[in-house]
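Exercise 7b. Backbone tokens:
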């Protein structure tokens, strides 16, 4: 099978397309034919070993001090079950599934992968029928992160919510999810993305290059930093008394419960993945270069298998 591997940290060029043996599922595993995956911020960070100075050494000890322990990246994915391990009972061959891998083991930059039916870190459930594989593949990380942090902030109807980085992956889901909860959303992004963020459901959009949101006369119930580029001290200037600041710098989690919520929102049309660009697995270096550029809007989808990719 084809797979993208990396044996050292660095620029996108460390990613190499190679031929590997097709994996065989253990008794508790499913063999998934990966139809699509994505390039997330986590994939880029692991590839480049781009961790904050205080966390650089602990992160390298976890993920590999001198070279990466996990040599196939790809954190979220969508695919079709091709084979079951002898102890698998939750799924059947032919099921269309989607979910996440772990940061330390299996990666989705491959034509096939084996993952456990039940596990403590990654999540796998049946794919939303309304979404194509390339759409489903970019749903898990951004939507679960947005759901977790908005729920952590105890979002309520009619609250005023400011979403910093509203045109990114987490931000694009956060705008839609906040609307679902009945909040009034202000998005912060660059001028070129204002129309996009308005279409996602923001009532007001601030161009961060020309206006400092922290100097606004409006007070907010929640300020959600979806890109880790603002601060609690800045947010406090516009937060109401007892207002909440949440950020992707905080500890978040992935869970079956959260992904089931995201799937239901997608199935009912409350959220829809925004795909900026679509690449093939063979072009993974170019894909990582694009994400590194900082110009990405929403999500970037990576098609692994083309057959049936557009089936709903």
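Sequence design result:
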């Amino acid at each position: 099978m084809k797979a993208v591997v990396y044996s050292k940290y660095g620029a996108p060029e460390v990613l190499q397309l190679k031929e590997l043996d097709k994996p065989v599922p253990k008794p508790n595993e499913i063999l998934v034919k990966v139809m699509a995956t994505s390039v997330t911020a986590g994939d880029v960070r692991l590839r480049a070993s781009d961790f904050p100075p205080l966390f650089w050494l602990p992160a390298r000890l976890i993920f590999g001090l001198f070279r990466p322990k996990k040599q196939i990246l790809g954190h979220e994915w969508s695919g079709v079950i091709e084979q079951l391990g002898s102890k698998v009972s939750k799924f059947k061959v032919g099921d269309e599934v989607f979910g996440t891998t772990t940061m330390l083991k299996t990666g989705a930059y491959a034509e096939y992968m084996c993952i456990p039916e039940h596990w403590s870190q990654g999540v796998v459930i049946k794919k939303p029928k309304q979404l194509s594989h390339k759409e489903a593949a970019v749903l898990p990380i951004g939507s679960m992160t947005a759901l977790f942090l908005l729920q952590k902030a105890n979002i309520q109807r009619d609250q005023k919510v400011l979403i910093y980085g509203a045109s990114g992956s987490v931000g694009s889901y956060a705008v839609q999810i906040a609307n679902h909860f009945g909040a009034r959303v202000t998005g912060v992004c660059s001028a070129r993305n204002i129309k996009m963020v308005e279409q996602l459901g923001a009532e007001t959009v601030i161009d961060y290059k020309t206006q400092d949101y922290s100097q606004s006369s409006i007070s907010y119930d929640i300020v959600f930093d979806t890109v880790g580029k603002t601060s609690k001290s800045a947010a406090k200037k516009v937060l109401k008394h007892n207002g909440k600041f949440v950020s992707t710098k905080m500890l978040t989690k992935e869970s079956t419960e959260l992904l089931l919520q995201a799937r239901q929102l997608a199935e009912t049309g409350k959220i829809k993945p925004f795909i900026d660009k679509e690449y093939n697995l063979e072009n993974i270096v170019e894909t990582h270069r694009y994400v590194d550029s900082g110009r990405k809007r929403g999500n970037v989808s990576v098609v692994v298998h083309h057959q049936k990719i557009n089936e709903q």
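Instructor comment: DSSP finds nine helices and 14 strands in the chain. The chain has a mean pLDDT of 94.
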